[in-house]
Amino acid sequence: MTMSFPTSSPAAPFAVLATAFTASDPETLHLLEKYLICVDQNGIISAVIPPADPRYAEQKSAYQQNNALIELGDDQYLMPGMIDVHVHAPQWPQMGKALDLPLYAWLQDNTFPLEARFSDTDFARRVYAPMVDALLANGTTTAMYFASAHNAASLALAEICATKGQRALVGRIAMDNPEQCPPFYRDSSAHQAVDDTAQFIRDVQTLVTPQSNLVLPVITPRFIPSCTDDLLTGLGELAGQTGCHVQTHCSESDWAHEYVKNRFGIHDAQALHKFGLLTRQTIMAHCNFLSDDDMDTLRATGAGIAHCPLSNFYFANSVFPLRHGLQQPLHIGLATDIAGGHSPSMFDSCRHLLTAACALNDGVNPQLSAKERGRPGAKADFIHAFWLATGGGGEALNLPIGQLAPGFAFDALLIDCQSPDSNVIIWPEFDDHRDVLQKIIYNATRCNVSRVWVQGRVVTER
């Protein structure tokens, strides 16, 4: 069967007839075979209708008559758009470099000098426009971005995301600690950083572009070592006043974790909570060294975690205990952590998640006995990875995205398993639909992402 597309306006209601995959929690995968997924004029899923439903034939016919039915072929599948909950946008030119360095040296010698370049807004636009194109082409429909410590460049990122139609949460980084931040790249004072953050929030909220409703501002203390107490206090107060999202790093590496313990006598999560920065709108990257008390605090506040499996290997010297976090349960999404992670593909992040969980479960030191080597019960499967990359990310962000279900935004990917150069090899006599999704998670690349919708609007197509 060949694929057909409607010619009606993107603002008009339409439906997709497809075999689709979606998850409603970390353990529950839904296989929707030849379902009719109906999308209203606002880009919201209005109904998900199975073939056995009495409405199915009538609704299908109505959409066909209005030239508003998209019918996928037998080797094409629909899934929710990928949600990357931790991206350092100004590090895009650095992706794939200097990953042999420890975190502190990587920041001081490579990252801070690069991010300082974003005082030049024209340079920022040169970086950000192709970055957003690339992420959309890889299937990232939503990204939570750390920008730089520059209002104009950070606003340019928000504008580019809105213009290109990517759902985005964008934060202007705040960092003022002279003991940890270089003189060429830091806020002049805590007061100025809070004022600039407040102005950035106002600027994003008043963006005027066709898709400006897709972009939200984020309060962004880089991480505790880069911020003074006055700055953390001011940003916590701003979070309480505005209700905006908050993003930062938490207990990422031995160095960062020990720094906070030495400075405050408590862990990062407790310190951030003390400053009013843990809310239902908060996402904290890494969280590798959380104690059970820290997890209790996250559960009580509703704060979420950005799981960054690849960059944890490079910079954290540890593996986040994902299954333990899900069992609490905590809100956890998946992330590339560009450029601490070298791949812009959330499919790669899924694979890195599975590798990390296996490494933690089985252990990696052959000089230890098998009983001593690992952490039993830590292994994850492809459904956990799929959930974190889609519905889990939406849940962590507290947004109705990441699921193919009524009331959720139609952010979706058309995955073509027969695209040229595809690594997804399907054998109909061996593979059921559950097998197909496993193969997509393990083998899909950018070439398989044939079409991308955000809020019902096509934003990229091969």
What do you see in this structure?
By secondary structure, this protein is of the alpha/beta class. The chain has 2 domains: 127 residues, Urease, subunit C, domain 1 (Roll); 316 residues, Metal-dependent hydrolases (TIM Barrel). Helices cover 38% and strands 22% of the residues. It is built from 16 helices and 16 strands. Strands 6-7-8-9-10-11-12-13 form an 8-stranded parallel β-sheet. Strand 15 and strand 16 form a beta hairpin. Helix 5 packs parallel to helix 6, helix 12 packs across helix 14 and helix 14 packs across helix 16. The chain is globular and about 65 Å long. The N terminus is likely disordered.
Classified by CATH, the class of the largest domain is Alpha Beta
Strand content: 15-25%
In this structure, how is the largest beta sheet organized? 8 strands, parallel
Shape: globular
Short description:
This protein has 462 residues and is an alpha/beta fold.
